[in-house]
Amino acid sequence: MDNNKLAELLFPNVKDCSFYENKYKERDLKEDAQVTRFAPSPTGFLHIGGLFSALVSFLVAKKSGGKFFLRLEDTDQERKVVGADKLLVSVLQKFGLQFDEGLDSIGQEFGDYGPYVQSERMDIYKSYAKKLVEMGLAYPCFCGDEQAKELEEMQAKDNTEKRGYYGKYARCRNLTYAEIEEKINKGLPFAIRLKCQYKLGDRFKFKDKVKGEIEMDANINDAVILKSNGLPPYNLAHAVDDHLMRTTVVIRGEDWLSATSEHSQIFEALNFAPIPYAHLPQLEKMDGTSRRKLSKRKDPEADASLFFKQGYPKEAIIDYLMTLINSDFEIWRSKNRNVSYLDFDFKLNKVSKSGSLFDMVKLNDVSKNHIAYLSAEEVFNGIMGWANAYDQDFAKMIENNEEKLKGVLSIDRGGDKPRKDIAKYSEVKDVFGYMFDDIYYSYNLNNFEFDFEKYNADLIKEVANHYLSIYNENDDKQEWFNRIKENIEVIGFASDMKVYKANPENYKGSVADYTTIIRVLLTSKKNTPDLSSIISLLGKEEMQKRFNFALKLINNQQ
User: Fold this and answer.
1) Three-state secondary-structure class, residue 10
2) Residue 526: how many CA atoms within 13 Å on its side-chain side?
3) Pairing verdict, β 224-226 and 191-194
4) CB of 172 within 8 A of CB of 228?
């Protein structure tokens, strides 16, 4: 068969590949610089696994002085979601992952290797498909659903070891030019398939940048490289794009691992220099006693933007993902609190080879650690930024109580062991809501963490009145505590914990019980930052008002 004639029949008026090879030159970068890409499909929200992959690609490029670009793989037009492209870019930018090339948040392209949207690169893919036909390595396939069903039945009858479109089952592989021309003249739709050069039993080996040496069954199917609608599947599109965009390492999820043989065959057929692959572990979660892949449909935490809505600092999410990327990051971070994660000596070959557990409990611990070491002003700004975006009513409340909130955030902050009471800014309303009059005075008795079996209403009232009688607004923290200890014996409370523990029946309670009653009256909570500091922030007038409010609730309940 005259392959050139066939190629012209299938692809008239298509540019020669040399046009694109000349257009997209080798990049002018230093020898070890890496060019990486993040290439999502705009089919919905950004999966946290996508952020994980993008972060690794970003690190590889930045640590080597290379380039990191965005490419939208939208050839599956049926699954494309309107606006998903802009959403993906926006979320990535919020996490601080800036692209050197690609698209911005309003959909504008920038860079010399575009278009960066695959659906706008159709002529390029046709050019390389045509080249494969000219080389005798690809052919048109007219098989539709009916033929696919027949093939399935035939292979079931033959009890074939391997199902697929290969060997004698590749019914269009040996069509003559005349047969092909006749079908085209009839207007029959056709796909383009690559003629696989491998046979059943052949093995494929390659070295993965993450997983090391890999060996698997070689692909033997004549893979579709252009669908009947003219759009390429991932196999051809990514091979052509990564070649022309001069990608130096393809970083992607391990769900693509099994397709690597097929993809490598396309690189080989087109005489492209092979680009190494790095297959990242999938993110998993516990489901009962077993682990499973984090699901876009089942798991809310799969949506990367959810973490902004919940008020996690972006730096905490990045730090957590870094612990999954390189296990020694956590130790490094504990010794380097105030530097960028980009200063960490990241290694691609140290990424976990198996699934990484996405653990919300661990994420919360990482986030608590991050927030604990921020200044009060930084935490306040983070809370305010979150509230302005997601809780306007709370934002207004903060504006009216700015000094109170900053004051409580300042308590016990700094030093080697700062307190760790919030993992996300959305928790502030619950953890520190008592500092806001609008919240505190909306409480009912169920909000107050009193142990009424231990403290009855009369005892609570007695402690409140006694404390008001000894309160001195000029006391510092130590003087405040000493004054309580020096005066509580007269109402039957032990000032010495050892004495109380030895003979608890001789007392109404201990100094700890006394301060707990005051704490719950003023804040509704048994655990808060330093009580004397909270009292100073509230002031005597507000303290007395709160005592009256809480005692009235208690009396009405009795």
Assistant:
1) helix
2) 6
3) antiparallel
4) no
pLDDT at 558 over 70: no
Q: Please give the pLDDT value at position 27.
A: 96
Q: Is the dihedral of CA 445, 446, 451, 456 positive or negative?
A: positive
What is the rounded distance in angstroms from the CA atom of residue 288 to the CA atom of residue 271?
49
DSSP SS3 for 177: helix
Residue 193: per-residue pLDDT: 98
Tens digit of each residue's pLDDT (9 = 90 or more) over 90-112: 999 999 999 999 998 888 999 99
CA dihedral 388, 99, 270, 73 (to 10 degrees): 10
Q: Residues 263-279: pLDDT tens digits?
A: 999 999 999 999 999 99
Which stretches of 203-339 are DSSP H helices? Answer: 234-244, 260-269, 306-310, 314-325, 329-335
Where are the extended beta strands (E) located within 348-443? 356-357
CA geometry: angle 301, 304, 310, nearest 5 deg: 70
SS3 528: coil
* Percent of residues, the chain, with pLDDT higher than 70: 100
Q: Which domains does the chain have, with CATH numbers?
A: 122-279 (3.40.50.620), 284-372 (1.10.1160.10), 443-557 (1.10.10)
Q: Is the pLDDT of residue 82 over 90?
A: no
Q: Are 157 and 100 in contact (CB under 8 A)?
A: no
Helix (H, G, I), strand (E, B) or coil at 448: coil
| Token duo for residue 382 | 């983070």
Q: Which alpha helices (H) appear in 186-259, and where do they start and end? A: 234-244
pLDDT in tens, 190-202: 999 999 999 999 9
CA pair distance 130, 139, nearest whole angstrom: 9
Q: In whole angstroms, what is the distance from residue 506 CA to residue 316 CA?
A: 50
Query: pTM of the prediction?
Result: 0.91
DSSP code for 79 = G
Integer CA distances (angstroms), 207 to 202, 274, 276, 356, 502, in order: 17, 11, 8, 21, 69
Residue 544: C-alpha distances to residues 471, 493, 521 (Å) = 11, 21, 10
Strands 138-141 and 191-194: antiparallel
Q: For residue 293, what pLDDT band results from cuts at 50, 70 and 90?
A: very high
CA Rg value for the chain: 33
Name the burial class of residue 488, with classes exposed (0-12), middle (13-18) and buried (19+) by CB atoms within 10 angstroms of its CB: buried
- Alpha-carbon span 181 to 187, nearest angstrom: 10
Handedness of CA 523, 528, 531, 533 (dihedral sign): negative
**CB distance 434 to 510 below 8 Å:** no
Residues counted in the chain: 558
